[in-house]
Amino acid sequence: MNELVKRALTGGLFVAVILSAFWLGTVATFFLFLMITWIGLDEYAKLFSDNQQVFLSPTLVKWGGVCLFVSLTLPYFLYAQHWIDIKNFKPGAILFTNTLIPYILVSILLPIELYRKKNTPIPNIGTTILGWLYLAVPFSLVIQISFHEEGFFLLTGLFLIVWMNDTFAYLTGRVIGKTKLFERISPKKTWEGTIGGIFFSILTALIYAYFTEMSYLFFILAAPIIATASIFGDLFESLLKRSVGIKDSGTLLPGHGGILDRFDAVIFAIPFFYVWWKIFTLILN
Questions:
Q1: Confidence of residue 196 (pLDDT cuts 50, 70, 90)
Q2: Closest Cα to residue 134, out of 223, 32, 221, 43?
């Protein structure tokens, strides 16, 4: 099969699955991103499988990251299942799931490293925590956004802008790109492509706000934030792969690589979008 056709079919199916989960609500989104978190953490651990400077425990990376994801999203999942009223959820319980469990997870890394008897305990601990922060935390914010009454439109807008930025940055770069953006990390990226991606991100935000009757101001300002964060997300994943000498993080998605390859831009965009959403909501109130 032609590589372009394969990439288009995989991309179309990928978009359909993601948007369907958003449409179905918090529970469906929770289970989808729980799976994505697990696969992403597995890919992350495998990046360092042949590295002689860092020795990760794939089991610890995956289960620790999943526990962190669940601890940060549990109240929203339980409420979506109508098992609790989140308005009456005890502050102590939220403190435990959102603060103490992550602290406990980090605290157990030290004794585990003592028993593993590796020569690089500090890099091992740091790289493990980085994986948790890199994947579990951003994906947990997706669940928190989906819980909002406008969660479907917020998340769809976020992902749509990321995808349009990625697509048009690539196309613009192919057509008129000459000035390298960050040649040491990603030789094919150009300033022209970057500017083109940001421009079409803002245009996408305008069109999306018009058809969904969402706030123009919110999405117009969100677009450059999302696009800029996406660029750095892409560059960071390229830096990760380049540092370990790997081209793709996995082979799960034909024509796209692995979960990390497909979500690299979104991973960085989610936290910035989430903060902007909270700030905008605060200003309106």
A1: very high
A2: 43
Residues 217-230: b if buried by 16+ CB within 10 A, e if exposed:
ebbebbbbbbbbbb
Mean pLDDT computed over 81-102: 61
Distance in angstroms (rounded) separating the CA atoms of residues 234 and 262 = 9
Summarised one tens digit per residue, pLDDT across range 274-283 is: 999 999 999 8
- Token reading at 55: 């020795």
Give the amino acid at 154.
Answer: L
Q: How far apart are CA 45 and CA 42, in angstroms?
A: 5
How many angstroms separate the most distant Cα atoms in the chain?
59
pTM of the model: 0.90
Distance from the first to the final alpha carbon of the chain = 53
Higher pLDDT pick, 9 / 15:
15
> How many residues in the chain?
285
Neighbouring C-alpha atoms within 13 Å toward the C-beta of 40: 29
Dist. CA 246–CA 232, nearest whole Å: 19
Give bridge partners of residue 182 from the DSSP assignment.
186
DSSP letter, residue 250: -
User: What contacts 151, CB < 8 A, 6 or more positions away?
Assistant: 22, 25, 26, 145
Q: How far apart are CA 248 and CA 53, in angstroms?
A: 20
Mean pLDDT, the chain, rounded, equals: 87
Quick one: average pLDDT of 237-245?
A: 87
Helix (H, G, I), strand (E, B) or coil at 118: coil
